[in-house]
Amino acid sequence: MSANRYLFTSESVSMGHPDKVADQISDAILDHCLAADPKSRVACETMVTTDLAVVSGEITTKADLSRAVVDRLVRDAIREIGYVDPSIGFAADTCQVQCHLHKQSPDIAAGVDTGGAGDQGMMFGFACDETHTFMPLPIYLAHRLVENHARLRRSGQLPFVRPDAKSQVTVEYNEDDSFHRIHTLVFSTQHDDSAVVDQGGRKTFSDAARDEILDKLIVPTLQAENKKLVKDRSQIELIPPGGAPRRHDDEVIYCHINPTGIFLEGGPHGDCGLTGRKIIVDTYGGRGRHGGGAFSGKDPTKVDRSAAYMGRYIAKNVVAAGLASQCEVQLSYAIGYPDPLNIWVSTFGTAARGLRDVDIAHLIREHFKLTPLGIIETLDLRRPIYRESARHGHFGRELSAFSWEKTDIAAALRRAVERAA
Question: What pLDDT score does 236 carry?
Answer without folding.
Answer: 95
